[in-house]
Amino acid sequence: MKPLLDVQGLSIGFGNAPPVVQDANFSVNPGETLALVGESGSGKTLTCRSVLRILPDAAQLRSGKISFGLNKPVDLLSLPERSMRDIRGDRISMVFQEPMRSLSPLHRIGDQVTEVLHLHRGMSKSESKKAVIKTFEKVGFNDPERAFRAYPFELSGGMQQRAMIAMAMVAKPDLLIADEPTTALDVTTQAQVLGLIKDLQKETGMAVILVTHDLGVVANMAEHVVVMRKGRIMESGPAPVVLGAPAHGYTQKLFAAAPMIPDVAEPAAPLDYSDLILDLKSVSKTYTVRAGGWKAAKKVHACIDVNLALPRGKTLAVVGESGSGKTTCARIALGAETPDEGGQVNFRPDASAEPMPVHAMSRAQRIAFQRKAQMVFQDPYSSLSPRMRVQEALTEPMEIHGIGNRTDRRDKAAEMLRWVGLNPDMLKRYPHAFSGGQRQRLSIARALTLDPSLLVCDEPTSALDVSVQEQILSLLEEIRDQMGLSYLFISHDLAVVARIADEVAVMRQGVVVEQAPPDTLFYNPQHPYTQALIAAQPEPDVNRPIDLNLVSQGAGSSESWAEMYRFDQGSAPSLIEIEPGHKVRCHV
Amino acid sequence: MMFIRYAGYRLITMLLTLWVVSIMVFIIINLPPGDYLSNQIAELQATGQAEGVAKAEFLRVEYALDRPVWEQYFIWVGMAPGPHGFSGLLQGDFGWSFEFDRPVAEIVGDALWMTILVNLAAVLFVYLVALPLGVLAAWRSETWIDYTAAFVGYLGLATPNFLLALILFYYGHKYLGLPIGGLMNPIYEGEPMSFAKMQSVLVHLIVPTFVIGTSGAAAMMQRLRANMLDELSKPYVETAKAKGLAPARLLAKYPLRMAFNPFVADIGNLLPAMVSGSVLVSVVLGLQTIGPALLTALKSQDQFLAAFVLMFVALLTLIGTMISDLLLVLLDPRIRYGARDG
To answer: A106 and B333 in contact by Cβ < 8 A?
Structure first.
């Protein structure tokens, strides 16, 4: 078959430095999907952008040929800018990673999408609107007219990405380039968006280049795979071959690191709840949103009647999509927010001590509590001050709490660096000298300097590459077991918590819908939302595609659930223990 | 509909603010000990001119300067009856200027319009110059266009206004035959508005506009350039490029719209800065604006005149802020719907 796009010997570089993409060769057949796989810094994004020639100003296309088209192929790299503009958005279009930032916040969705038709088809206003509304229906907007009038901030992330896809599809391009189109989305939304791209592809026969770091996504989408690392292609071939028997060591490493939901043979035994380090009792949080002007204030229930117990030395994971209330729970547990009347959080520093209510502490008790309960944040790039040396960042907590003298603090900081697998020589460096994974090690070291007994980890791996993610999880496990720590682990990803958690609470719309040890949960998931979460997890196996029906049913509103799980008039049924250690929110 | 309600709401808050400003203006003016008349009486008594003293005493009573300060305030605003019943700002009586021995309204009358005219011209100049230059400098950043614009801009910021005024007058007159000083040919002063008079005013406006506007334009240009540079690196610009938009249209439709917010929000700050900044220029250039009157009034504690000028500047500022707030609401849907989505 003649390829639609053929990239030959592509090299891209910055300034006088060695090239960041070197001698890349691949081709895309019409109607097929090619996956470009790699971690950050692999050059996959630059490679796909060079097809449209929308590289950063400083980037130079050093050599290569990109021929595009079936009948009369043109070389995209030598085409004049004016003709290039006719190809962009018309014959080749693109979908980006962060839909919120990739849509202009000041223009209506309809305006931004019709623009493509005005540019390339010269359509009139009413004609283009008709075409766009039709595309909106196809990408799954329930009310296309409303979406047409909406501004991006009025839509959810998944809906924004659908709008982006509509924008890319409306001119019926021959080739769609999707650069990590689902990385910023929740798993269930990711599954639906991937399904949508696949359906549209089937219908229009366009080719797709899918840029991703997730082998699970590749298995669900691609016919061909190209694995990149540090600007070079490591391995390429048909997806079943590359995924079934990866030949290159790097591909094998990626495979080993990919988080997966394990197959479980039997449910786990329930946890022992006799010694709780942290105990949340009927915690609710209601925010009052000031509507401004004359309108009445609106009440938002961030979490409703949450009961969570963390046994000493164990890990309790709270899993849910954005807006499910998981972060609010963590903030309440740390005393950063007060729960509504009637809720209580108890902290028990050691097995012999009396439980202390976190929200009714004296000043001295509070300071002692803050020493014992520390936090690891999501984004290691912004949670370390760029102007503080590692040593200052690590000793500051001890200074605040007045622990030891200068040399003691320095020694402790050095010891902590060793604990997290870094070298004590690094104390004098600034954070910018470290990679993402190393920075997350630094923030873990910082949390450990006060000898805490409880760590709250807020999505500690979601900003990291898969292979690094795996290392950080191992490190957290190791520290927990050696130091006897307890973790409250917040995540949106069931596969990530699968290995580290002793107990998982799945949250949806502010309530816990199902709670059990992970093995029990994976062996016998009961709640439709949990089932959707598990089904939506893309697995790097071409023979096990995502079951989209299960996902859309479970991740939809509660009306799409089976009768026994449904919320009536906004209030949820109660949480019921269906077997020892396994609670589900359902009617009996 | 929502916009009209918002505008009404802003108008009410503006009036309330103006009221608070009036209290503060009055307090500040009364902070130095004594007033114009008591100073004058002391001076007259020292030189033994009893006749003048009687007139000054009469004026003191006439303008209620013998009463407590708070009472004076209410009489000045027109919320309490003075010696001649209610007659204050609310009723359109701006008081008496002791220094010029004429009603305030008569002194500032023409100057008021001239001030508005000069400053409007300067603001227009600022926007017309800063907008294209700022956009161009950002789009072609770190090229000769950017560097030249920055050089000229910094020159404008760094040169003292009065010096610039003198230089421009000299060369403007020498090579272009522009008039020196004043805002119109003296023969038109006091004449009713006519085509010839307007022409004369416009020609006289050229140099003052340039002088007052240059530093503002330079600052605004640099700010717009910085905003544009931030916006140009945002992903939505890339989206627009990937659609196949041509550079000029892309620039105008997306990043410029975003960079425009601070630009619009600055109208409120620009006005008072220009009025107070142009006092010195007005003195040097002999412009019949309100600036020189304010300077004299403050020096001699001519309180009604000073208070009126300060109130006028405050009003200009508040109107400027209100205009920019309303424009922002029209321009940015996030602000417009901000209240709804919380």
So the answer is: yes
